[in-house]
């Protein structure tokens, strides 16, 4: 899996002997064509500490704790239940947001997260979105349209039961796969398995049978830019968020906004996305949202410049 599905490349790491940490830096590239008029292009990402989650066998990238020196204390504390969209009452273009969401354990499908770079009229916003789908058995007569990374057909003489089992097992064995949909013969002619790297919304379709990896609750985290109003690329950037046994009731989102740069660390760096959003400085509203009722708690800190 990629270190970061966002706007970074040329990553380099070194071992800090004084603290015993492996530190990663990446170059944050531009995502528009205005860099010549600005007179500069790109910058270093935040420094990340690399470790391995032994339970998940997964690379973890945690923001270096020295970044806390840039916080403007005391910060603002939040703790309350909510559903829908709620403003946090802060406007800032240099901010760290660190919130924990206790999600709905019973929900089949849910979405929640943080809203950043919201315009004053609330028409434009960038979402830091967590998507969850919980299908313990195949979901009949439902499609998951989108996020396909591989499709393959089955023989016309094969049975739906055999094909569904094979499609599910194939998803279980491929690291990139999060969800899958089996399309029965007739639409199109050949039965087909679609493996997906994300969690599309469930859509009724009598030709389809859908499921999740290992028939378990699955999560993705994404930077959703389609309604951001950015002058650059507006494609969404999504990463798999793995869940071990100790991460089954909540998700933590740690988001750093530094003008056009948005860096996301989910569950202490088990998923990381670096993004660029080019919007006016007045697009600085911050909020939260959730499709299901849940508890939220955490802190928001405005940040000093590292050059001061």
- Tally of separate helices: 2
Q: Please report the total strand number as a whole number.
A: 20
Tell me the structural class.
mainly beta
**Distance separating the two termini:** 37 Å
Low-confidence stretches: none
Radius of gyration: 21 Å
Helix content: under 10%
Main pleated-sheet profile: 10 strands, antiparallel
What is the residue-mean pLDDT, rounded to a whole number? Answer: 93
Order of helices and strands: EEHEEEEEEEEEHEEEEEEEEE
β-strand amount: over 45%
Q: Could you say which overall geometry the principal axes of the C-alpha atoms support? A: globular
Q: How would you describe what is shown here?
A:
This protein has 308 residues and is mainly β. It is built from two helices and 20 strands. The strands form three sheets. Strands 6, 7, 8, 9, 15, 16, 17, 18, 19 and 20 form a ten-stranded antiparallel beta sheet that branches. Strands 1, 2, 3, 4 and 5 form a five-stranded antiparallel beta sheet that branches. Strands 10-14-12-13-11 form a five-stranded antiparallel beta sheet, with helices on one face. The longest helix is centred in the middle third of the chain and has 14 residues, at 160-173. The radius of gyration is 21 Å and the shape is globular. The two termini are 37 Å apart.
